[in-house]
Amino acid sequence: MPANILKFSLNRCTCVERLEDNTLRSVCTLRDTFTSASVEIVSRLPDLEIVSAQGQFHHEWLKLPDIDGIFLKLKGIRIGAGMLKIISGLIGQREELRQLTYMVEECCQAVIISLTRDILVQAPESEEAKLEFFSNMVRENIRLYNRCAAFAPGSRLVEHSQPPK
Amino acid sequence: MLTFARNKLVSVAALDPETLSIHAVLDDDAYGLEIDLRVSIEERKILDIFGKWNRWTTPECYRAIPFLQEIKGELIDETMGERVAKNLARKGCRHFANLFLECCDAATQALRVIRWENEKVARPALSFEQFLKEEGGREKTVKTTNTSPKITVPLSSCQPQIESHGAEDNRKDGVARASQDRGQGFIIDLHTHTFPASSCSSVCADELIEQARLIGLNGICLTDHNHVWSLAQVEALSQKHGFPVFRGNEITTTQGDMLVFGLEKDIRAIISIEDLRGEVDAAGGFMIAAHPFRGFLAFNTVQLGLTARKAAQRPLFQLVDALEVLNGKVTDKENGFSSSVADALRLPATGGSDAHQACEVGIYATRFFAEIGCEEQLIRALKSRDYVPVAFRSQIRQTA
Questions:
Q1: Which residues in chain A touch residue B141, judged by CB atoms under 8 angstroms apart?
Q2: Residue A141 within a domain
Q3: Which residues of B fall within a CB distance of 8 Å from A99?
Q4: Chain B 189-228, CB below 8 Å of chain A: which residues?
Q5: Per-residue pLDDT for B175 more than 60?
Q6: Domain limits for position B36
């Protein structure tokens, strides 16, 4: 077979929209060579508690048991720190559930990044002001310190920050 | 209207009979990045990898790119997800790590297709379904661990609506307010983790206990994740070090982590908070909401409309006996917010370091006003509500 013909391809799209009733709807859709699936999570502000979860999952050979029952378990979980452990713990570690778990996590991560976006748009344009903006961000939220290359020792963004106590 | 969209595309081709070529793109509101890598079909080894930013946020994001080279030579196997989460995601960039793991998963799937195609050369009638049946569970996919496990999101300049108060405030529910003129009291770090009981900790119990004694704590409580220390074990540690050692358990529930005391039952799976409350009640134990607002204040809380009064209405707070309002792993703002919520609820407040290293023990602790010599006394003391959280290490620094 010619080398330019794909053996596998994947498209994953995750979107968040704010609804009128102070909730956020996050949808992750996956289409790959073997899978057609979507997961929808609705969370309520201000504490980002999951109020509903639903979805569908079709796979060439994996068959999921009681998908509605799986989604019911997610109700009441808060999107935030510690959620990945809770989500994977509730859905389970079985091979056939791995992709579904990941899609739920993607939905939740998207909610978090969508809220972060509101902060990122405030970043100034100039290089110098931008350095100050993100340096302040680390100082304000010291847990960012050493969480990635940009916030690691040696970066200009943490020059004046103290490591977490 | 969408407030956020992320698109990921991964394509896998066979460059030649020995090599896979993978191209991946991640494009969302904040970031745009691409990865190209080659993987050997026989060994599943990463032969080379190239990363590229198209859009980024901070002026230092470029520093993540060299860390991709640390993956070169690694094998795509079941442990790849964990290795990437610990290394590339933490040292480099979690968005690159996220996309790289999608690549690994896609490579694994592509290899399945290639094996089927190879089988078909000898057996042209072999269907994919039949091939899968024959192959069974021999091939496993890479576990695509989500690589952004912590919410360390930039803060806005807007402050959370914290209503009060200092770390040493006691609860105002009729229990006598503690004050420093009652002496130093008996200070215990109620929240610590040791290795190997907690895989995330890097300190053994012996070292942690010695450090606790060295800095002048009066006792320490081992609260490893979903782990039950036997009474005999902690008594042996206590005797060995001549230092009071107590036991608790940090149990993950559907509503977050809970510190429980007096519960012997070994709970390994995620449990609902209602069920855990039932277990603790049946055992006559005590339950504290650990770091109840960890990561909560990472966003613009004013925009979200989060106030201490609203937060106090969360159902979980009706099911706990106390709140941990000084925790060594959260920000001062989050601790302050927890304290405000404890006030609003008139629940007692505790402090604990959440130490995972020896140098962290005693950052925060809980001051009791009578000596505590055994587990029964500890639980009785917790139920008495007569204690205060303390910033222990900063106090001893000031004294020195």
A1: 95, 98
A2: yes
A3: 144
A4: none
A5: no
A6: 6-135
Confidence class of residue A18 from pLDDT cuts 50, 70 and 90?
very high
A63 and A129 in one domain? no
Classify residue A153: in a domain, yes or no. yes
Q: Do residues A84 and A140 share a domain?
A: no
Give A85's contacts in chain B (Cβ within 8 Å): 149, 252, 270
Residue A102 has pLDDT above 70, yes or no: yes
CB contact under 8 A, A47 and B106: no
**How far does B76 lie from chain A, in Å, by closest CA?**
16
For B330, name the nearest residue in chain A, comparing CA atoms only: A143
Task: Answer with the one of B103, B135, B167 that is the final residue of a domain.
Answer: B135
Q: What is the CATH number of the domain that holds A33?
A: 3.30.390
- Note whether residue A2 is domain-resident: no
Residues A90 and A148 in one domain: no
Q: What is the pLDDT of residues B198-213, one digit of tens each?
A: 988 889 999 999 999 9
Specify if B152 maps to a domain: no
- Tell whether B195 is covered by a domain: yes
- Selected for mutation to probe chain A from B86, B108, B152 (highest A CB count within 10 Å) is B152
3-state secondary structure chain B: CEEEEEEEEEEEEEEECCEEEEEEEEEECCCEEEEEEEEECCCCEEEEEEEEEEECCCCCHHHHHHHHHHHCCCECCCCHHHHHHHCHHHHHCHHHHHHHHHHHHHHHHHHHHHHHHHHHHHCCCCCHHHHHHHHCCCCCCCCCCCCCCCCCCCCCCCCCECCCCCCCCCCCCCCCCCCHHHCCCEEEEEEECCCCCCCCCCCCHHHHHHHHHHHCCCEEEECCECCCCCHHHHHHHHHHHCCCEEECEEEEECCEEEEEECCCCCCCCCECHHHHHHHHHHHCCEEEECCCCCCHHHCCHHHHCCEHHHHCCCHHHHCCCEEEEEECCCCHHHHHHHHHHHHHHCCCEEEECCECCHHHCCCCEEEECCCCCCHHHHHHHHHHCCEEEECHHHHHHHHC
Q: Residue A128: closest CA among chain B residues belongs to which residue?
A: B59
Q: What is the pLDDT of residue A3?
A: 64
- Closest Cβ opposite residue A141 in set B92, B109, B155: B155
Nearest to A102 among B15, B128, B144 (CB): B144
Residues B274 and B125 in one domain: no
Does A150 share its domain with A74?
A: no
Q: Which among A17, A47, A140 has the least Cβ separation from residue B2?
A: A17
Q: Which residues of chain B lie closer than 8 angstroms to A71, CB-CB? A: none
Query: Which comes out higher in pLDDT, residue B160 or B113?
Result: B113
Contact of B28 with chain A, judged by CB distance below 8 Å, is answered with yes
In chain A, the number of structural domains is 2
The alpha-carbon gap from A33 to the nearest alpha carbon of chain B, in Å, equals 9
Question: How does residue B171 score in pLDDT terms, banded at 50, 70 and 90?
Answer: very low
Considering the domain architecture, whether residues A99 and A38 belong to the same structural domain is answered as yes
Overall number of domains in chain B = 2
B379 and B238 within one domain: yes
